Amino acid sequence: MVEPDRPDRRREAPLEIDPEPAGLGRLAIWLERTRVARGKLEDARSRHASLDFGFNVAEHDAAIGGGLLAGALAYRFFVLLLPTALLFVSGIGLYADAADKSTREAAKEAGLQGLIAAQVASTAHGNSRWAVFLVAIPVVLYAAAKLYRAIAITHALAWHGSGRGVRTTPRGVGLLLVALFLTVVAVELGAFARRHSDFGDLIALIIYVVLVGGGWFLLTRELPHRDVGWTALLPGAAVVGAGFLFVNVFNVYVTTRLVEDRANTYGALGIAAALLFSLVLVGRVIVVSAELNAEVDNRRRGSS
């Protein structure tokens, strides 16, 4: 009797099972995907001028250390805010004495509400307000001069790649104070427009961007830059106006509410951390505005 043919098990194909890649295998796969994605971005960059412009700004930011510059500007803003707060608080107390009002009422008339109004009122209630007010004035001017120098160095790095030879001028410090004052005025005018107009939000937005951007444009003309026309400085001024508006909205709807709700939990450290984070955002906006102006000028020179 003939036995049927049986398959030769030695010739059967082995069962293939794809093992899960180990740590090095996953890293290799991730690196390969990153390389492919980077290749696609570079290809798109060569075809789209706007994408290439954004990459150039990002590379310029990395080359001059934009993150570190933003942190340095945040520190200088914080140093300026300390004596300015003392000047403002002592001024609130002096105004309350002259108008025969309580410090809490004077703080509310200045537009301060909630926890901030209570803190200012309690701090302004003191016997040495005149001394604090007089001492704070030169300290504010000194801190403003240091802030102006930091901003000037940032612009010099963005435009020329070096901060050497940057000088602090009285005109520049004065324009910086004007720009900061216009920021406060824009906030107050925006609040007034929202209270008295049906289109208050839109009017407040336009007022803020125009005043803040205009003030920064005047300051930018005094800061280091190449020999360019005034129109070459408008993009950066627009970025500052829109960027500061974003930071202001973030502070109103996120930072202030978080501080007021969690003041007992985090205390002064939490308030300082929230403030420093907001100032870092402000520093970032300033750095990007300078880099944007410089890159726009590079494009103009390259096409001419």
Describe the structure.
By secondary structure, this protein is mainly alpha-helical. The protein has 10 helices and no strands. It folds into 2 domains: 22-54; 65-294, no CATH class. Helix content is 80%, strand content 0%. It starts with 22 loop residues before the first helix and ends with a helix.
Report a brief summary of the structure.
The protein is mainly α and 304 residues long. Helices cover 80% and strands 0% of the residues.
Number of helices: 10
The rounded distance between the terminal residues' Cα atoms is 96 Å
Radius of gyration: 29 Å
Globally, the shape reads globular
- Domain count: the total is 2
Q: Based on helices, strands and strand pairing, what is the structural class?
A: mainly alpha
List keywords for this structure.
304 residues, mainly alpha
Indicate the topology.
Blueprint lengths: L22 H25 L1 H16 L1 H34 L3 H7 L4 H11 L4 H32 L9 H27 L3 H23 L11 H28 L1 H41 L1
Helix pairs in contact: 1-2, 2-10, 3-4, 3-5, 3-6, 3-10, 4-5, 6-7, 6-10, 7-8, 8-9, 9-10
